[in-house]
Amino acid sequence: MPALILDGTKIAQDIRSEVAAEVKTMAAAGVRPGLAVVLVGHNPASEIYVRGKVKACEEVGVYSEKLTPPETATTAELLALVEDLNRRDDIDGILVQLPLPAQVDAKKVLMAVDPAKDVDGFHPVNVGFLSTQRPGLVPCTPAGVFEILKRSNIPIAGREAVVVGRSDIVGKPAAMLLLNANATVTVCHSKTHDLPGVCRRADILVAAIGRSGMITRDFVKPGATVIDVGMNTITDPAEFQRFFAGNAKREEAFRKKGSTLIGDVHPEVAAIAGALTPVPGGVGPLTIAMLMFNTVKAAKMRRGNRVPELSRV
Ligand code: NDP
User: Fold this and answer.
1) I need a labelling partner for 237 at 20 to 30 A (CA). Which of 84, 147, 195, 212 fits?
2) Are residues 148 and 99 in the same domain?
3) Using a 6 Å CB cutoff, which residues line ligand 1?
4) How remote is the CA of residue 230 from the centroid of ligand 1, in Å?
5) Domain limits at 91?
């Protein structure tokens, strides 16, 4: 039986609706959550991401402000800007869009963000809160992975979870969320021996690697839930054929656009997994939805209110 496809677009929309309702309730109490997005220079990909984030704010009723220092901005200038945002009461979330220009000490700038406003969840204080199971702000993409599992009623407690990838942004926090939810967690990386064998132990397999279609059916236990975080672009027709030959819809889109998005999981895994997130339309849409969620969560936490009900993390 082919895998159940876990519809991230639908889940993200549900979360956005819940956040919008929460924002309405807060408005009645005279509070409007606010998100500041700092976009340095003119990186085209970053501009697209930031546009998406600002649009999502408009949709759910969150106040947003885009700050656009020039490409030549110095570390000191960005620190001053972050300090100013830290002090402002109308700003609950601060997001510094990465990458920053080479002359900027990115770590220093990210460390300067008030942990209470760190809606990306990258600050070591929030990393510490997550690993010690205290309320805090959890990185958006792994929080999205977790929401997909919970909302799809995939059992986690007592199950074997394998996370491939150990980045601070995705792999490690995803592993921590699964561990906190009582899974038995294995984290793999480029030095792991017998990766397919380790992955085959998984009831829940999370792929956050950044390698097109690397997870083939040999990595997957029949019936496992497979969460594909990867977002890779294919432009080479031969590579496209290797993954998508015979997929008429994809072929037409590839012909028109000259590229297609593929995850870290090979399409053949759909024939063996129990449940699978597609790319696109799986984890991707959750990232911005969880950013909206985090902004509202930060607004409430800063005011000492109960955090929104939907937070299970
Ligand atoms: P990183 O490059 O930071 O981390 C990749 C991880 O994969 C590393 O831990 C690396 O191991 C491991 N890895 C690389 N090659 C292999 C291999 N051959 N075998 C086993 N492990 C390997 O990537 P990110 O975590 O930032 O992102 C991962 C993927 O998720 C990317 O495709 C990215 O585009 C996507 N992504 C998607 C988001 C979304 O919104 N859906 C958001 C963020 C990321 P090692 O540590 O040993 O080098």
Assistant:
1) 195
2) no
3) 141, 164-167, 169-171, 188-192, 195, 208-211, 229-232, 283-284, 287
4) 7
5) 30-114
Catalytic residue among 7, 92, 118, 120: 120
What's the mean per-residue pLDDT of the chain? Answer: 96
User: Which CATH number belongs to the domain containing residue 56 in this structure?
Assistant: 3.40.50.10860
**Does residue 115 have a cis peptide bond before it, meaning omega lies within 30 degrees of 0?**
no
- Nearest protein CA to atom 31 of ligand 1, as residue: 210
**What is the Cβ-side half-sphere exposure of residue 219, based on CA atoms within 13 angstroms?**
28
Indicate the top mutation candidate among 211, 229, 234 to test ligand 1's pocket, ranked by most ligand atoms within 8 A of CB. Answer: 229
| First vs last C-alpha separation in the chain | 32
114 labelled catalytic:
no
Does residue 26 have a pLDDT over 70? yes
103 in catalytic set: no
Portion of the chain with pLDDT greater than 70, in percent: 97
CA of 167 to the centre of ligand 1 (A): 6
Report the nearest-CA residue for atom 18 of ligand 1. Answer: 190
161 and 272 assigned to the same domain: yes
Residues 144 and 84 in one domain: no
Domain count across the chain: 2
Model confidence band, residue 313 (pLDDT cutoffs 50, 70, 90): very low
State the pTM of this model: 0.96
Could you tell me if 62 and 194 lie in one domain? no
Residue 49 pLDDT: 95
Q: What is the CATH number for 176?
A: 3.40.50.720
Residues 69 and 165 in one domain: no
3-state SS, residue 20: helix
Burial of 214-229, coded b for 16+ CB within 10 Å and e otherwise, reads bbeeebbbeebbbbbb
